[in-house]
């Protein structure tokens, strides 16, 4: 099995040397769970934090902690500098044109909700919103609610038998009434990477605005929002080594200036009078209340850590692990893969089931071996229904995972079968 994409797995194994070089940077991984060395395969949900991120957050809290943009005293000035330095780092990370185009939120979910509320000003009754059935609930519910509030039509793209959305499907569904296309960069269930650039081009030809859910893309793919020509791009820090509670919404400046603010209160105003108010310029207009400065500082440190390694190298490592795991799982006749079994246009996420065993039982038993995996519907119930799946187990890789860990995971699957009386 060889990759057809640019991140082709090389004959000389990268993974054998790659992960051990960095694993010791993550103190949480140096522990035992249920008497076994921890193997963490739930990275699509949340990644772990290296020492440099932990130290950056700790240093901020110990030496700076103050409200930014609100005071003339030294600590407030330092907090403002730390917060805005983080914004500048995010801007460069995704190659945005201006720092004002970077809005800090709590996570991808809040970014998408912000857009679905603020973009209400851009649509009218009878307009259409286009999403796909493979989306995370966070990229479905906000658009459902917008469609209900404004009497819009919500339409879906459907993937093929290999969990991939074809551009022909998009061409068929786009029309002059389509105002918004919101699509994930990478599926959190199948790991499939959508042809987002081509999708954006097609949508723009129909004068539709495009929102990209980059929750799974940003941590693994070198993303250039200007090259993509994305109108909006959302992602979360906790899926890329940063703390929980810090997210990003990128938007083209002209579009963000056109949208009304989502939350209102301190920090996002220019003048407040008894009967009316005016709003601060970007990005403050969308950042009401005291911001998560320590989260932003942690996100900056996480980006610096990832850039020092190189996202291309991390991607190559993940694909090598994915290929290895798929080959090993393919040797087991009781394993059913829910997603593509090749490496073309996919990331390091594998969803699967063991025949006649529920995914929650699977996850519980492998946890007894110290292995953390995901189980359930992965906040993607429409996709599960489309493929007639009740739930799946899911393993997902990051830079600190190894082939030896994959081997132990494969061994644990036999134990799951033994517990249910199926034998090895």
Automatic annotation (TrEMBL):
Any one Gene Ontology BP term: cysteine metabolic process
Cofactors that this protein relies on: pyridoxal 5'-phosphate
Record's protein name: cysteine desulfurase
UniProt-recorded Gene Ontology molecular function terms: cysteine desulfurase activity; pyridoxal phosphate binding
Keyword Transferase in record: yes
EC number(s) from the headed UniProt entry: 2.8.1.7
Segments forming domain Aminotransferase class V: 39-409
Homology family: Belongs to the class-V pyridoxal-phosphate-dependent aminotransferase family. Csd subfamily.
Source taxon at top rank: Bacteria
Keyword Transferase in record: yes
Keywords: Pyridoxal phosphate, Transferase
Reactions this protein catalyses: (sulfur carrier)-H + L-cysteine = (sulfur carrier)-SH + L-alanine
